Structures are given as structure tokens and as C-alpha cells.
Amino acid sequence: PLLAGEKARCQDLPLYLKTDTHWTPAAMELTAEKLAEAVRRAVTLPPPMAGRFTSAEKAVTNSGDVAMMLKLPAGRRETAYPPETVRVKQIMDGKGQCRPDPAGEVLLLGDSFANIYSLDLMGWGESAGLAEQLSFRIGRPVDAIVRNSDGAWATREVLRQQLARGWDRL
Q1: H helices within the chain, ranges in order?
Q2: Is residue 129 a contact partner of residue 140, using CB atoms and an 8 Å limit?
Q3: Is 144's pLDDT higher than 90?
Q4: In the predicted model, what is the mean pLDDT of residues 86-112?
Q5: b vs e for 82-97, b when ≥16 Cβ sit within 10 Å of the residue's Cβ?
Q6: pTM value?
């Protein structure tokens, strides 16, 4: 409903990448803002760490995962799915890139949508994903368990296995 409402409100705003099966930075940032509001309503966190997190825009260009999944030959890939450029907001933590923090008071469970702008190997930048955006918005470190495959079940299974081994991230 959140993204459908945003699309109805602003029809020219792309919410999904043209050459990839994931959302745009704008859709992800809107979701991060709404998640931050939900977290603030649900739990009482210590005050935000003033000045700890900063953001800087960065242009990222990638051909996306559609052409890769179709296994198109190199020459055909670029013509059928030309590279796309987006602007991400990379989050910095002090002097370095923001990363999920096991000491964070919030634990985010996610899939490749949470990771698309976090994991450099996905080709859309790093330190600009859902966990980092959530940290920026609540002003606190966020922990994350993120798996790029198998959806929500696999991420919850990772958490279950960690809990069974005595690592209580909750």
C-alpha cells in the first residue's frame, strides 16, 4: 500500500529499476522512513546519536540483474538492457561506511531488497541500503540479517539457527 500510494501520488516517480528486479533508491528510502516511524512508535530507544550518521549522494551505474538472469551474450546485453544510473545516499558512520552493527538495538531481517544498495557485489553501491538508511533515520546503529535468496523464510531460519546456538540477537 505504501508504494502503491506513492505511485498514485507521483506517477512520474519510478519505484522499480528499469533493468533490475529491485526497487529504486527513492522507494527504499521511503520505506526506510516509514520503518523508522514504526520503530519509534513500537519501542523506546535511547536518544539518537547526534552527528554519528551522515549521508552523501553518489551516482551508481549498473546493467541490472535482468540481463544477467537471461544469460544474454555480452553484446546483446548492453543493447537490450542498457546500463541505468541512479543516485544513492551512502550512509557514513563516523569516518567510515555504515555497516550493520551486532550491538544495534534494532534487528532488521531482509532479503535482496534490503541488500541491493548495501552489498557492492550486487553492483548498485554499498553502505546505502535499507539497514543503513534505517540507522540514519533513527540515529542509532541497526543490526541486520540479510539473505539475497529464498525470501523471508530463509532469513528467519538464519535467526532461528543463531538463537539455537546461543547467539541471541533479539
Answers
A1: 2-9, 25-42, 65-70, 74-80, 112-115, 130-138, 151-164
A2: no
A3: yes
A4: 94
A5: eebebebbbbbbeeee
A6: 0.92
